[in-house]
Amino acid sequence: MSGISLGFLENIEAIPHLLHPPIVHFVVAIPVIVLLIEIINIIFNRRALSGFAFTFLFILCFIVLAAYAAGSVDGKAAFDALSAAGQEELKAHKALGSLIVIGAFVVLIFKFITVLSSHPLVRTVYILVLALFVGATLKQGKDGGELVYEHGANVSQVKALDDKLFDLEMQLDELKSNDEKSNVQTSGAAPQEPTAAPKEEKGEDVNASLDVEQKKSDANASATEDTPKKESESNATQKPDTIEKIKKEVVEIKNKVDAKIEKVKESVEESTKK
């Protein structure tokens, strides 16, 4: 759904962030009020009621322009943080929003025609167009709620938890990779060749001296071998602990994100029932 481009509204950068939600409530509420006024006016046929409806529609045209411009600012801020499904939902939401902007002016034109002509057919067509416009605004409001409560658009707490979850998963993968490399190096290490015995020389003092040197060399070699083994054993015991710790943090953050989303869904369902 490509929609109609309203570039002159999308390039306004002076609009504050998160101004779209309070404005868009009027876009949904005013058409419903106008439709109720028109239905009541079918019975009473009061010119004052028709004037109220025209005034509301005139104001609505400016409100939908402001809502679209504010929505463009909020949409740009939320787009990169959304999933692929959320981004597609946001594009469809924007496309329908551009149609609603044009639809508001179309409804106003039809209302102006009914003021000039009192023919019943003109009034019937106007009310049908108005009812379709009301349906479009209600659908747009529902889609906007799904963007926030299901995809987390502009919900900073969900985004922060998601970023932390991603970082921990990266650390976990890195530790697993390092652990596998360490295991490969340990299993592939070649055994050291035994030290060749020194050639026999004449004289008891020379043999005694060589025996002392050989013992020193063996002691140094044994100490050198024990040090990497101890470090390897220490790292081997620490790495599983670190991996398990990160796994627990990943699970905790996932649970927090799921709980946050469920809580928001429940609040939406409660408000809908009310």
Write the layout of secondary structure elements.
Elements: H1 7-10, H2 20-44, H3 47-79, H4 84-116, H5 120-149, H6 156-187, H7 204-273
Helix pairs in contact: 2-3, 2-5, 3-4, 4-5, 6-7
Structural features, described:
The chain has helices spanning 7-10, 20-44, 47-79, 84-116, 120-149, 156-187, 204-273. The chain is an all-alpha fold and 274 residues long. The chain folds into 2 domains: 7-154; 155-185 and 215-274. The longest helix is centred in the last third of the chain and has 70 residues, at 204-273. The chain is rod-shaped and about 125 Å long.
Summarize the structure.
The protein is built from 7 helices and no strands. With 274 residues, it is mostly helical.
Helix content: over 70%
Taken as a percent bin, the fraction of beta residues is: under 5%
Task: Give the overall average pLDDT.
Answer: 76
Largest sheet: none
> What's the tally of helices?
7
Rg, Cα atoms, Å: 37 Å
* Helix/strand order, N-terminal first: HHHHHHH
| Structural class designation | mainly alpha
Please tell me the total number of domains. Answer: 2
- Give the N-terminus to C-terminus distance in angstroms: 33 Å
Report the strand count: 0
Taken from the alpha-carbon principal axes, the silhouette is rod-shaped
Residue ranges: pLDDT <50 for 5 or more in a row?
A: 196-202
